[in-house]
Write a structure and sequence with these properties.
The chain is built from 19 helices and 14 strands. The chain has helices at residues 3-7, 21-24, 62-75, 92-101, 114-126, 141-152, 157-166, 194-202, 233-269, 276-284, 305-317, 351-358, 377-394, 410-414, 419-430, 439-453, 458-465, 469-483, 490-501, and strands spanning 15-18, 30-33, 47-51, 79-83, 105-108, 173-177, 182-185, 207-210, 221-225, 293-299, 324-328, 334-339, 364-368, 399-403. The strands form three sheets. The protein has a five-stranded mixed β-sheet. Strands 11-12-10-13-14 form a five-stranded mixed β-sheet. β11 (324-328) and β12 (334-339) form a beta hairpin. The protein starts with a helix and ends with a helix.
């Protein structure tokens, strides 16, 4: 098999970023996956090198990229297949370096797994993977057999890691999510906080390999070794393949749970939160019958509700304990029903920025209701909608979580009102002042803001604006004439204050 043969496989949807015909005509001897910054000692001539580019970060020096590509060139690698998912695309600096070192570069879309590429190569070169010779594997045969038995017995990932690395002396290894949540670790691996784990993943500390499968940006899994030389890349790749099979089984089991959650959310949205059908729906989701509950809504960029659901599930799993069920409402919105107590809302504030960092170009917001009984879950849903609108209003292009527990001021209450309504209200109440068409109107707007902030004190307003008190009186009279409000009345002051907050 040659490199250009791989490019002709439509199912893989690979894109050639750089490569001259003599390079594409090279024969492929095998495949290896690595995210080591210096992989030379583990590479063989003629291999396709698969890399998720975890070792690179925007802002890194060009020399770092050149060292990686030079290692491939010196080892005689047939081509570099770079994954797009980690950074959204293959960085231009890598294209330039591959051109300079004459290494063919192929882009791998996020939907194409490295496992699919590996199987395509071996199916073409050696035939059916199930009949390939035992010597082709890096893991010992007895280890492979034991891991297969553990998978068949639905063993936990801790048991899989323990057995997979035991023959290597049991090095410290972790199975981590993109937000730093520890899914499993070997017995000798010390505990990590989510913050520490994220630092290891992003700073290139140790050896990290992405687990293949069908994850989104918010729930990717990584196999992480503390020591760079604790396991050869071939062995690490085969262990990652075992973990990928475990994740596939978990996803299959989760499908039934998701159907049960969607059925529960449909009842909540319809206001049918009572009766035997509703009790059965709660039970099917593993939730208590009496509550209290909180409803959480999440939204990404509005076009991918499934990704918002994955983000919500990942955030909620950072706080083990309260049971929850997450899925999609009939309209397609991501939602979760979380059991708990009245004093402790879901702890989303810490993991939410980490989730947004997984996909910073997409807004990510969540709204949390107050505690409600089972019969009032529809009310909780409406509360969560309002809180979600408040979170979006606070950071339209960023990320944030808002809870109705935090709606304790007029400003926070108004933040949940749709933007179009706030704009219309502000324009109607402030009248000509809202348009700021002249320097005079802008001056009056400033006076109004200071006057209200100083609780209607003429003297303090004059002092702050460096004006005579009579000038303040004149300006306030002009404001009253333009807005039709009387600033001696509390309700009119409140109208104008709300209008300023709605701008």
């Amino acid at each position: 098999m040659h490199v250009h043969d791989l490019l002709q496989l439509d199912a893989l949807d690979l894109t050639l970023l750089w490569g001259e015909e003599p390079l594409l005509a090279q024969e492929v001897s095998g495949v290896t996956a690595t995210d080591l910054e210096a992989p030379a000692r583990f590479l063989q001539p003629g291999e396709l090198v698969l890399s998720g580019l975890v070792w690179w970060a925007p802002g890194d020096e060009r020399e770092k990229v050149d060292r990686f590509v030079a290692a491939l060139a010196d080892s005689g690698a047939a081509a570099l297949l770079a994954g797009e998912e980690t950074h959204g695309k293959v960085p231009d600096v890598l294209v330039e370096s591959c051109r300079a070192h004459r290494v063919a570069l192929v882009s791998v879309p996020a939907r194409t797994t490295f496992r699919a590429i590996t199987e395509a190569v071996y199916l073409r070169r050696w035939g059916d993977l199930s009949r390939r010779p035992a010597g082709h594997y890096a893991l010992p045969e007895n280890v492979r057999n034991e891991l297969a038995g553990l998978l068949a017995g639905d063993a936990a990932p801790d048991a899989l890691l323990d057995r997979a690395f035991a023959h290597l002396g049991g090095p410290a290894c972790y199975l981590l999510t993109a937000t730093g949540r520890t899914l499993a670790r070997t017995p000798d691996a010390p505990e990590l906080t989510a913050r520490q784990a994220r630092r290891y993943l992003t700073a290139g500390i140790g050896n990290t390999l992405r687990i293949e499968g069908d994850p989104g940006p918010y729930d990717a899994w990584f196999l992480h070794l503390r020591g760079v030389d604790d396991a050869p890349p071939r062995v690490l790749h085969e262990i990652a393949d075992v973990i990928a099979q475990y994740r596939h089984h978990e996803a299959a089991r989760g499908t039934a749970a998701r159907r049960a959650t969607n059925a529960l959310l449909a009842l909540v949205a319809a206001g049918a939160a009572e009766g035997s059908a509703f009790d059965a729906a709660l039970h099917a989701c593993g939730l208590p019958a009496d509550g209290p509950f909180r409803v959480v809504l999440a939204a990404s960029d509005g076009t991918e509700p499934e990704q918002a659901t994955r983000a919500l599930v990942e955030a909620l799993r950072h706080s083990p304990g309260p049971p929850f069920a997450a899925g999609l409402l009939p309209g397609g919105d991501a939602a979760a029903v979380v059991a708990g107590d009245e004093e402790s809302p879901p702890a989303l504030d810490e993991p939410w920025p980490a989730l947004h960092a997984c996909r910073p170009q997409a807004p990510l917001h969540a709204g949390v209701s107050g505690p409600v009984a089972a019969a009032d879950l529809n009310s909780g849903l409406e509360q969560a909608r309002y809180a979600l609108a408040a979170a979006r209003s606070a950071a339209p292009e960023g990320a944030g979580v808002s809870s109705v527990d935090e709606l304790s001021t007029l400003g926070s209450l108004l933040s949940g009102v749709p933007g179009e309504v706030r704009t219309a209200f502000s324009s109607r109440v402030l009248g000509p002042l809202s348009r700021g068409g002249s320097a005079s109107h802008r001056m009056l707007m400033e006076t109004l803001e200071v006057f209200l902030a100083q609780h209607g004190s003429w003297a303090r307003t004059a002092e702050i604006l460096h004006l005579h008190v009579n000038t303040v009186h004149y300006r306030v009279q002009r404001i009253e004439a333009l807005t039709g409000r009387d600033l001696s009345r509390l309700d009119h002051k409140l109208d104008l204050h709300a209008a300023l907050l709605c701008r």
